[in-house]
Design goal:
The chain has about 425 residues and is of the alpha+beta class. It contains five helices and 24 strands.
Length: about 425
C-alpha cells in the first residue's frame, strides 16, 4: 500500500459526523417549542378560567351615635352665590388680573377696559365746571358793584338830587345780575353732575369682584371686546370670569317622591363625595323644595354642609344618607354595614355567604344578615357581622366560585 492509500485511510468523514449533531439539535429545538406551546396554552387556559366580576363597597349602616340611614339619595354640590362677572359698558379689554383658582376679596380689580374716551369726557366735564365757577365769580363781583350803585341812587333819589329813572336803572341792573348769578349757579350744578357722570363712566372701565370668592373660570383675554349684552356676531365677550363664594356651597339631591316622607327640615345627614367615598361629611337638611319633577318623580332637597373643606368644590357628585333623628327608633334599628342584595348568597333566614375581594382573590365570608334597608336605590341588605365597611364585595358571585379563587374586576364596579 503506497502513501496515498495510507493518507486516505487516516482521513475522517466530517459530513458523517455532522449528521448525528444536527439530529440532536433538532430534537432539542423541538422539545423547547413544545414546552413553550404548553406553557402558553396553560397560561391562556388559566387566564380564560379567571372570572370577571362586578363589585361594590360595603357602607356603614349607622351614623353618628349609632343612628342608621333611613334613606339614601344622590345629588351634586352647588353654590348659592355664583356670578359671571362682566363690565357695565362695551369696551376693549386692556388688562385681566385673574386666573383660575385665584381667591379674590370683595372689590378686587378683575380687569380693566380702555379708558381713553372716558378720561377725555371727564376732562371736558371738569373744564366746563371750572368755566362755570369762574363766570360765577365775575358775576358776583358785578352784582356787588350793582348793589352799591343802587344804594347810592336810592339815597340821592330821597334827597331829590336824581330823577326816578336813574333809580330804576340801578335797580334793573342789580336784579339782572342777581338772575345771572342764580343761572350761573344752576349751570355749576349741571357741570358738577356732568363731572360725576364722567367719573362713573371712567369707573365702569374697571371690573371689580362683587363678593369674595374663588375664580373658577377665566373667559376673556386682553385685546378682546366685552359687552354686557351679546353683540358683534359672536366676537364680543359677555363675561370676564366666573366667581364662586365657597362659603355658600350646599348639596342638592333628588329624592324619590315615594320616600320624601322620610325627610324633614333640620334632619341630620352624612354626605359622601364620589371622589372621597370614605369621607363622611356632616350636614343638615335646609329645606324641601315644595315642587316635584313630573318627569323624574322626584323632589329636590337642599342640604347644608357643616364641615368646610377645600376638597369640596361645585358640581361634585355626592351621595347622601339621611339619618334617623329619633333616638329610640334609631336604637331599635340594627347596626352593621350595607351591601347590595345581589352580593349575598342566601344560606338560611339569618345567615348567608358573601365573597370579598382581597388581592384579586375571592374570600368566602359567612355573614349574619339583617333586615332590608329601606329606601336603598337598588335594594340592599344589612350585614351584622362578617364584613367591614370599605371592603369590596362581589355582586352576583358566579356558580362554582370558591374561597381563594382568582378573580378579575370589571371596569365598572
Amino acid at each position: 500500500m503506497d502513501k496515498a492509500d495510507l493518507l486516505k485511510e487516516l482521513r475522517r468523514d466530517r459530513a458523517a459526523d455532522a449528521r448525528p449533531r444536527r439530529r440532536a439539535w433538532r430534537f432539542v429545538l423541538g422539545a423547547l417549542v413544545l414546552l413553550a406551546l404548553g406553557v402558553g396554552g396553560w397560561l391562556v387556559t388559566a387566564r380564560a378560567t379567571v372570572p370577571t366580576v362586578r363589585t361594590a363597597l360595603a357602607r356603614q349602616a349607622g351614623g353618628e351615635g349609632g343612628a342608621p340611614s333611613v334613606l339614601d339619595a344622590s345629588g351634586y354640590v352647588t353654590a348659592r352665590r355664583q356670578a359671571t362677572v362682566s363690565a357695565k359698558i362695551t369696551g376693549k379689554i386692556v388688562e385681566v388680573s385673574i386666573e383660575e383658582g385665584m381667591r379674590v376679596p370683595e372689590g378686587a380689580v378683575l380687569a380693566r377696559l380702555d379708558d381713553t374716551e372716558a378720561r377725555a369726557q371727564l376732562s371736558l366735564a371738569e373744564a366746563q365746571l371750572a368755566a362755570a365757577r369762574s363766570q360765577q365769580a365775575e358775576i358776583q363781583a358785578m352784582l356787588a358793584q350793582a348793589e352799591r350803585d343802587f344804594l347810592r341812587q336810592d339815597e340821592l333819589f330821597r334827597r331829590q338830587l336824581v330823577a326816578e329813572q336813574a333809580l330804576d336803572a340801578a335797580r334793573a341792573q342789580r336784579d339782572m345780575l342777581r338772575a345771572r348769578l342764580a343761572s350761573t349757579r344752576e349751570q355749576i350744578n349741571v357741570a358738577q353732575e356732568s363731572v360725576d357722570v364722567a367719573r362713573v363712566q371712567l369707573d365702569n372701565t374697571v371690573v371689580r369682584a362683587p363678593f369674595a370668592g374663588v375664580v373658577v373660570a377665566k373667559s376673556a383675554q386682553p385685546g378682546e371686546m366685552i359687552s354686557p349684552i351679546s353683540a358683534g356676531g359672536g366676537f364680543t365677550r359677555t363675561g370676564i370670569g366666573t366667581i364662586v363664594d365657597m362659603d355658600s356651597l350646599e348639596i342638592q339631591v333628588d329624592v324619590n317622591e315615594s320616600f320624601i316622607n322620610r325627610v324633614t327640615s333640620g334632619q341630620p345627614v352624612h354626605a359622601m363625595l364620589n371622589a372621597y367615598p370614605d369621607w363622611k361629611i356632616p350636614g343638615e337638611v335646609i329645606a324641601i323644595i315644595p315642587t316635584a319633577d313630573r318627569a323624574k318623580a322626584t323632589v329636590k332637597v337642599r342640604i347644608a354642609i357643616k364641615s368646610r373643606d377645600p376638597r369640596i368644590v361645585p358640581d361634585m357628585g355626592v351621595r347622601v344618607s339621611f339619618l334617623d333623628k329619633e333616638p329610640a327608633r334609631a336604637a331599635a334599628r340594627p347596626t352593621g354595614v350595607i351591601v347590595p342584595a345581589e352580593a349575598v348568597r342566601a344560606d338560611g333566614k339569618t345567615s348567608g355567604v358573601v365573597f370579598v375581594v382581597t388581592s384579586d382573590r375571592a374570600q368566602r365570608r359567612p355573614v349574619t344578615v339583617g333586615p332590608d334597608v329601606p329606601g336603598a336605590p337598588a335594594g340592599g341588605r344589612i350585614i351584622l357581622d362578617g364584613v367591614r365597611a370599605g371592603e369590596r364585595v362581589i355582586l352576583s358571585p358566579p356558580e362554582g366560585l370558591g374561597d381563594g379563587d382568582a378573580v378579575k374586576l370589571s371596569d365598572t364596579p
